[in-house]
Specification:
By secondary structure, this protein is α+β, with helices and mostly antiparallel strands. Among the domains are: about 130 residues, no CATH class; about 80 residues. Helices cover about 35% and strands about 20% of the residues. It binds zinc ion (ZN). Zinc ion binds next to helix 3.
């Protein structure tokens, strides 16, 4: 067998397919072409192929952790492998691209894949929770397994990362949790419950939305449930003394069960395009919070919610 470039792994002749084995990643021949070769071979700039290579290679490499170092116990837990690998592919884009555009597009595409309706009027998300694994594929929801487990499994991790983010320590909480998950499940088959136990060990106070120190609320919603909220955000900026400005805002959550809770981050765009996270608003059920009233030291260019697709939501 031709070993291929060591930095990537062996090539295999199928054009758009990758597979990860323990200690070995098979990548399509197209992944070994540089941009010029792809241009010559494909007769133009093919963004589809470039995206495929940028996303599938890290997905397959990520299976060295998610799938091989940590396995999954049953089809119900397979999202721990495919979802985590999809999350890792997004992380790769965030870390290797200068601008956040491709990373945000990746998250938006994942959102579309989860919620897009097929000819029967069914989205992959309508098929059932990610915990159903391969049983999501039915006559009216063909392909739902792949269209849900991968991107929504990735979103579960993405949402945890966002909730664990800290303005001083960044991703340190999340990274600590993921290291612990690998260490406690190394060369074992993890279950959804074993993952939840690690999340609960590392949860921070603003994740305690049910007030009982557990993350059941989150797993019930996103792993064992199918609710996907819609948000409506309105705000006003009112000038105050000393160049300060008062932010008055209202946030509405809809299309969910009465018990559905989520913490929704609010962001500010400041001078020079810098984005800063202001804080989070906890929402429960179908409701509107019109009491948001904060004095800011300076006028932001705009105020946004969910800027980093922090919560999987309808648009
Ligand atoms: Zn995979």
């Amino acid at each position: 067998m031709s070993p291929g470039p060591a930095a990537k792994g062996p090539e295999q002749p199928e054009f758009s397919f990758g597979q990860s084995w323990p200690g070995l990643v098979y990548l399509p021949i197209s992944a070994f072409l540089d941009a010029t070769q792809r241009y010559q071979l494909l007769g133009g700039i093919s963004n589809g192929v470039t995206d495929f290579i940028q996303e599938v290679t890290p997905h397959e490499v990520a299976h060295q952790w998610w799938g091989h170092m940590v396995g999954w116990a049953s089809y119900r837990d397979q999202w721990l492998s495919e979802g985590f690998a999809d999350f890792s592919a997004g992380l790769f884009l965030q870390m290797t691209e200068q601008k956040p555009d491709k990373y945000l597009k990746y998250l938006d595409n994942a959102r579309e894949t989860i919620l897009e309706k097929n000819n029967y009027g069914m989205s992959a998300n309508d098929a059932g929770p990610i915990h159903m694994g391969v049983r999501l594929d039915t006559e009216h929801t063909a392909g739902a397994y792949q269209r849900l487990i991968y991107p929504k499994g990735g979103y579960v991790l993405h949402m945890l990362r966002s909730m664990m983010w800290d303005s001083k320590t960044g991703d340190a909480n999340f990274i600590g949790m993921m290291h612990d998950f690998v260490e406690t499940n190394l060369y074992k088959n993890a279950t959804t419950a074993s993952f939840q136990a690690v999340v609960e060990k590392h949860m921070i106070p603003n994740m305690n939305l049910a007030g009982n120190g557990k993350m059941d609320w989150f797993f019930d919603e996103w792993v064992y449930g199918i609710d996907v909220p819609r948000y409506k955000f309105d705000y006003q900026l009112i000038p105050e003394a000393d160049g300060k400005v008062r932010l008055k805002a209202s946030l509405a959550q809809s299309e969910v069960s009465d018990t559905f809770r989520m913490a929704v981050p609010i962001y500010l765009e400041l001078d020079g395009g810098r984005i800063a996270r202001l804080g989070t608003v906890v929402m429960k059920g179908n409701s509107t919070n019109s009491n948001l009233d904060i004095v800011l030291p300076q006028k932001p260019k705009r105020v946004m919610i969910n800027q980093n697709y922090d919560v999987l939501a309808r648009k």
